[in-house]
Amino acid sequence: xxxxxxxxxxxxxxxxxxxxxxxxxxxxxxxxxxxxxxxxxxxxxxxxxxxxxxxxxxxxxxxxxxxxxxxxxxxxxxxxxxxxxxxxxxxxxxxxxxxxxxxxxxxxxxxxxxxxxxxxxxxxxxxxxxxxxxxxxxxxxxxxxxxxxxxxxxxxxxxxxxxxxxxxxxxxxxxxxxxxxxxxxxxxxxxxxxxxxxxxxxxxxxxxxxxxxxxxxxxxxxxxxxxxxxxxxxxxxxxxxxxxxxxxxxxxxxxxxxxxxxxxxxxxxxxxxxxxxxxxxxxxxxxxxxxxxxxxxxxx
Length: 300
Description:
By secondary structure, the protein is of the alpha/beta class. The protein folds into 3 domains: 5-85, Arc Repressor Mutant, subunit A (Orthogonal Bundle); 93-160 and 261-299, D-Maltodextrin-Binding Protein, domain 2; 161-260, 3-Layer(aba) Sandwich (D-Maltodextrin-Binding Protein, domain 2), CATH 3.40.190. It is 40% helix and 21% strand. It has 9 helices and 11 strands. Strands 3, 4, 5, 6, 7, 8, 9, 10 and 11 form a 9-stranded mixed β-sheet that branches. A two-stranded antiparallel ribbon has the order 1-2. The chain starts with a helix and ends with a helix. The relative contact order is 0.14.
């Protein structure tokens, strides 16, 4: 059986994206070339590896068996490249980090910049999505989430707690009705998530304040923050985002606040890849410190 690593690499991309075009984009190959590589691999193993349907390319039973071996081969090749090519302990290669947009906008830019400066050979990509990142399909090498997964073969590490408060622009507060209790919020427009697009129960902030209706909504916390800065009303804001928004003020800070947590999620097989272990440790350490620094600045 003559199986080439390059064909296994293409096989993994098709399995993870479930399409020839998706694999082609990932590997910078045209879909026709991806298709020929898969035909060559299927000839080499003597069995069909994918079943094509309107939904895409799904692994057959034989394809699923090959997937386990291909992933182990990928880890071996990656580990060997790191061991041979590492320079002076620096991190190299490409790492993709998935994160919710609050973390991706207000925390990861400075963290990734520091990592890049310390490791010039490291290419860092931040995937900011309004949904949970799928590590099984290798959308990212690791993901930061706001809740720990309850199923699947994943490793979970709690990074840190963070805090949120009601907030509004000071100009809005000067011109609006006074706010002394949560009941007074009924006299103000509320800014928050689009209710039917809340993909994680931990993001359902407003329900904890007893608020059912959103006047201005978005699936992005960054858009919500800009709506609040434009004096559109009152919303719930991450404390670590407040230093980036001059003019914002906490509302009912003494009587209402929320605590949430960040978790680092990884594919269990990646624990054998030292480069990813070191990046994960650095990201967790830096994220913990950055949340503490920005929250202290917001409190001051």
